[in-house]
Write a structure and sequence with these properties.
This protein is an alpha/beta fold. It has a domain of 61 residues. The protein has a 3-stranded parallel sheet. The longest helix is centred in the middle third of the chain and has 13 residues. The termini are far apart.
């Protein structure tokens, strides 16, 4: 039995405008392991959807930009208003 894939019809999920936001923090005191895992996740998803990073600290953003210069970044502080409450950053 043939299982349908996203390429069976010549379209990708990204063609429908799907976007995945990855909220991440990292730094000298927190470490960078979580950020590295997020980078790997973004790499795996990039053929399926547009991936946007929302780094929570300046050190995290610097790390991500150096590791993935072609990635898209947004300021999480100005864009959390539209996210469901379950993923809001606590003050």
């Amino acid at each position: 039995m043939h299982e349908l894939t996203n390429t069976d019809f010549g379209m990708r999920i990204a063609d429908f405008g799907f976007e995945v936001g990855i909220i991440v923090d990292a730094g000298p005191t927190l470490g960078y392991g979580h950020a590295v895992r997020c980078l790997r996740l973004a790499k795996a998803l990039e053929s399926q959807a547009r991936v946007v990073f929302y780094p929570l600290s300046e050190s995290c953003e610097v790390f991500l930009r150096e590791a993935s210069p072609t990635s898209e970044f947004r300021n999480p502080n100005s864009e959390f208003d539209f996210l469901p409450p379950v993923v809001h950053r606590s003050a």
